[in-house]
Design brief:
The chain is of the alpha/beta class. It is built from 12 helices and 14 strands. The chain has helices at about 10-20, 35-45, 55-60, 75-85, 90-95, 115-125, 140-145, 160-165, 190-200, 215-225, 275-290, 295-300; strands spanning about 5, 25-30, 50, 65-70, 90, 105-110, 130-135, 150-155, 170-175, 210-215, 230-235, 245-250, 250-255, 260-265.
């Protein structure tokens, strides 16, 4: 029997443990911190062995494979020892992807990914699709695959999650932007961070889609060096020969091979240039999935936004 060891017993760790248990693995969960009671309850419910406030090497270094929480850096002592033993380390998302044929809509970027992920989920939910929300928001992808499977998943991915994904494929990948971030986790080499973000495109084929901001200077330079398998869907405020979503005469325009969608920019629920980009990316994803135009329009009109992000409160003296 293969032995799966899970480092970190938060949302992703507990979910991965349940999926592994249900798939017949010998499962052990180890957390260097205290485990929240709610997650202890989940682990106990499925008779999963766990420990907290320590990492017992004898129970970890005999693993066939390790699923690591994205919050644990590769330079952590226990991770170094796992690597030295030649044990493969993967993410919860990578593990969950092995057990589902669902369509994966995955979003990453230095900024805006939570809003865009939430907006895409809102559109697909309003369209009546069987869709789950996962990754950095929503419930664990692994737990949903194990206990509440869906036909579609909208998944927010951090660079840390992407680092340990190998065979997983995004059917629709969205890359919003790349600016220097988390460089302490990447040996202070910006290219290492860029490479992590572009892992969202790995394993894509001509049947898949890559949505990206056409004017991001880092993405533009990186695309010159890479040959991607997916069909490209760039978006920008200004229209170019290849732009699939843009703003023209105050109209948000999404133009794909078989469809043209337009909507007054002033009617978008989300305000600001950055949110115009988020809306374009979300609208492109929905269009690729053949969501009806009226559903896209209504969802872009009534989306309430993400809590603790930029929100309209009131107008005071014309401000």
């Amino acid at each position: 029997m293969k032995r799966i060891v899970i480092l970190g017993a938060g949302e992703s760790g507990a979910g991965a443990a349940v999926l592994a248990k249900l798939k017949g693995y010998d499962v052990f969960v180890s957390d260097l911190s205290a485990i929240q009671p709610s997650y202890k309850s989940i682990l106990d419910q499925y008779a999963i062995e766990w420990e907290e406030m320590q990492h017992t090497e004898a129970l970890i270094l005999n693993a066939t494979e390790v699923i690591k929480s994205q919050g644990i850096p590769d330079k952590a002592s226990i991770v170094k020892k796992i690597t030295e033993k030649g044990i493969k380390i993967i993410s919860e998302i990578e593990f969950a992807g092995r057990f589902t044929n669902a369509r994966m809509i995955c979003i990453t970027g230095s900024n805006g990914k939570t809003t865009t992920t939430s907006l895409i989920y809102h559109i697909l939910k309003n369209a009546g699709l069987d869709v789950g929300l996962a990754g950095n928001i929503g419930n664990s992808l692994a737990l949903q695959v194990a206990t509440e499977p869906h036909a579609y998943y909208v998944v927010e991915l951090s660079s840390f999650q992407l680092d340990h994904m190998f065979e997983f494929k995004a059917h629709i990948a969205v890359l919003l932007n790349i600016t220097p971030d988390h460089l302490d986790r990447y040996n202070y080499e910006f290219q290492n961070y860029v490479d992590a973000k572009f892992r969202i495109t790995q394993n894509q084929t001509a049947e898949d889609a890559f949505i990206f901001w056409e004017n991001d200077p880092v993405i533009v330079e990186e695309l010159k060096k890479r040959t991607l398998g997916a069909h490209l869907y760039p978006f920008s405020l200004e229209r170019s020969e290849r732009t699939k979503a843009f703003v023209e005469q105050d109209q948000l325009v999404i133009q794909t091979l078989n469809s043209i969608f337009t909507m007054p920019q002033s009617e978008l629920a989300l305000k600001g240039i950055h949110n115009a980009y988020n809306s374009m990316a979300a609208g492109l994803a929905a269009t690729i999935l053949d969501v009806k135009k009226e559903r896209i329009r209504q969802s872009l009109l009534d989306f309430r936004g993400v809590e603790h992000r930029l929100e309209y409160v009131a107008t005071v003296r014309n401000v």
